[in-house]
Amino acid sequence: MKNVVILISGRGSNMQAIVNAQIPNTRIAAVLSNSESAAGLAWAAELGIPTDSLNHKSFESRLAFDQAMMAKIDAYQPDLVVLAGFMRILTPEFCVHYEGRLMNIHPSILPSFTGLHTHERALEAGCRVAGCTIHFVTAELDCGPIIAQGVVPILDNDTADDVAARVLCVEHQLFPKAVADFVAGRLNIQGNRVLNTDSQPQSSALLV
Ligand code: GRF
């Protein structure tokens, strides 16, 4: 059984998708947040999952917060730490501590559009596709070996909210699969690449 600790900052729909997937050999050991009002905490608590929060505003530095969060996380002896909409920039200390067992979801096709407002920026740039990326976390923001990516079309009349909703559906499929692949030992990090010993999808073009 592998222990997974999930960090959230808000509604936690990706966390819910991972919990609902009931991944074999996986115990969701805790759901933690930097905000006690994160809606996802109440959802998890109702299922009997341990929850806790630490308000980043009550720490004098980013590192002090990260160290306190690491202590909370480590109490659950995690095999994997999942950032599911955890809206904090992490210190190198945090990233190194969980190297190879820290996973993030980012709502763009990385390495394009790191940071915030990804869908607005994809629209402004005239992109015909948008998507999301699951990656192992390294100290550089929204970088690190890519585990999986999902792509959706951008349609002519789309707003950023339309794109976000379309991408979110893909996030909810992709993230539980990435966690399941990790737990099953199917992911091999080789430099910037992550090789997956699971069967690969048949190659097919997405023409938009
Ligand atoms: C998702 O779009 C994720 O890609 C981004 O933040 C959002 C979190 O949504 N990092 P939720 O809290 O999982 O619903």
TrEMBL record:
Binding site for (6R)-10-formyltetrahydrofolate: R62, M87, R88, I89, L90, N104
CC per GO annotation: cytosol
Pathway of action: Purine metabolism; IMP biosynthesis via de novo pathway; N(2)-formyl-N(1)-(5-phospho-D-ribosyl)glycinamide from N(1)-(5-phospho-D-ribosyl)glycinamide (10-formyl THF route): step 1/1
Active site, renumbered: H106
Entries under InterPro entries matching the protein: Formyl_transf_N, Formyl_transf_N_sf, GART, GART_AS
GO molecular function, a single term: phosphoribosylglycinamide formyltransferase activity
Raises pKa of active site His (site feature) positions: D142
EC number of this enzyme: 2.1.2.2
All residue ranges annotated as the Formyl transferase N-terminal domain in the record: 2-179
Catalysed reactions listed for this entry: N(1)-(5-phospho-beta-D-ribosyl)glycinamide + (6R)-10-formyltetrahydrofolate = N(2)-formyl-N(1)-(5-phospho-beta-D-ribosyl)glycinamide + (6S)-5,6,7,8-tetrahydrofolate + H(+)
Pfam family, one: Formyl_trans_N
Functional note: Catalyzes the transfer of a formyl group from 10-formyltetrahydrofolate to 5-phospho-ribosyl-glycinamide (GAR), producing 5-phospho-ribosyl-N-formylglycinamide (FGAR) and tetrahydrofolate.
Protein's recorded name: Phosphoribosylglycinamide formyltransferase
Source species: Neisseria weixii
